[in-house]
Amino acid sequence: MSTLSRDDVAHVAMLARIQLSDEELDHLAGQLDQIVGFVASVSEVAAADVPPMSHPLPLRNVTRPDEVRPSLSAEEALAAAPAQDLQRFEVPRILDED
Fold first, then answer.
1. What are residue 88's DSSP bridge partners?
2. What is the chain's alpha carbon radius of gyration, rounded to the nearest angstrom?
3. Rounded distance, CA 61 to CA 71, Å?
4. How is the chain split into domains, by residue range?
5. Which InterPro entries is this protein grouped with (predicted)?
6. pLDDT for 88 beyond 70
7. Are residues 77 and 87 in contact, defined by beta-carbon separation less than 8 angstroms?
8. For the chain, percent helix, then strand, then coil, each to nearest 5?
9. Which CATH architecture fits 6-45?
10. 4 near 35, Cβ under 8 Å?
């Protein structure tokens, strides 16, 4: 069984851009280690003769067919927008990357 350290949890939190306190890192390290253990135990149970599936029950597609219907023009949709650029809504940048 794998053991996740505080550093592992801190690294994952940094990748997810989540700020965690030292207490939260300690607490989550134990919880995430348990979750990894549970997933490993499920992997052990899966047999080679069991086909992979996306869902245990048969699913039926209940979506409606696409139909062209009247809608707003780009100008009408953007009329009340606080900022727009090239017929698109302009929103504040949330990432520093280009």
1. 85
2. 24
3. 26
4. 6-45
5. Asp/Glu-ADT_sf_sub_c, GatC
6. yes
7. no
8. 40, 5, 55
9. Orthogonal Bundle (1.10)
10. no
Report the C-alpha gap between 11 and 5 in whole angstroms: 10
- The H helix count followed by the E strand count for the chain is 3, 2
Q: Which residue, 2, 50, 10, is CA-closest to 27?
A: 10
**Residue 25: CA count within 13 A, CB half-sphere:** 15
Asked if 29 and 49 touch (Cβ cutoff 8 Å), the reply is no
CB atoms within 10 A of CB 13: 15
Residue 21 confidence class, pLDDT cut points 50, 70, 90: very high
**Calpha distance 10→16 (Å, rounded):** 10
- Measured in residues, the chain has a length of 98
Tokens representing 71 are: 């809608």
